[in-house]
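REQUEST ID: PR-0412
SUBMITTED BY: lab tech R.K.
PRIORITY: routine
TASK: structure prediction, single protein chain
INPUT:
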Amino acid sequence: MQTLLQVYFRMPLFFRLLSSVLLLMLLFGTVIHILEPVHFPTVFDGVWWAFVTGSTVGYGDYVPLSNPGRIVAILLILAGGGLVTFYMATISAGTIKHEQDLSKGLVTYKGNDHIILVGWNERTKQLMEMIAEQNINRQVVLIDHTLNHLPYQKHHLHFVRGSAFEDETLEKANLKQAKYAVITADPSKKEQQADQTTILTTVAIKGNNPDITLITEILTKDQIKNASRAGADSIIRSNDFMSTLIFQELFRQSPIRPFGLLLEVLADQQFQQIPLPDALYNKTFLECVNYYASSEKLMIGIKRKDKVIVKPPFHTKLQQDDTLIVLSALHK
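STATUS: complete
OUTPUT:
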């Protein structure tokens, strides 16, 4: 008996209340069946009457006629009605509290194969919009230490409040079951400090899940090697990228705006690295371009060892260890 009580009081409040309501209705249903077997032929009929009466619905299809039965009904209304009301109020309050905790980033994520975004800024906002536009069916978990509140229903992502280099925060984001992680630079910090925090976060994420695909944003060239040593699978050099685009914009000699053009291309296309098929070994770059053009893919270059060669001469022969760089349409 003591063990059952210990188990009962260790249960969450919701299940304690539910089990109490079920036991109480079963008790009253059994008692009324025993007292008035003619009007309540089965225990189920008694339990049905107990639920209808205890919830104050009162259909009137089953009514106790004897004085003992009416006394049982009075006790049921006094005890069961209050318990059922308290149970419904607890469910409502628990639902509201859970949604508030979701918005405050206090709830642990339970899913798997999700994407973890570190940092809430314009880059992650636009990334969320692109994921939604492409109808990518994958849950996104956001880790951020600056936000105090993020409406769950509005942004359709699971928010975890905290620092991404802390194990407790990563556990709440269920990092070990995640598929991808993206670390964006903290815009509130100086570039050097932002990169140091990014590298520390990279170490923490890779240390907890070595198999995760990790994309890291680095602002300064000096920290690119450190980010690679920390375990980043891909390093986004945002400052270098923006500087190149600004240079192209400044000194272009044609009416095409490279920045807008690149945004349009990347919105509908994606880069792929494809190992050289056996059928294309020792073929020329031009033959490979024609090969992929038939499947509506644009081959723009090759990766040979650690060197990326964009638009090599058409007569260039492809070698066995080459990786092809192909631009193809996004799959919606």
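NOTES: The chain has a mean pLDDT of 82.
REVIEWED BY: pending
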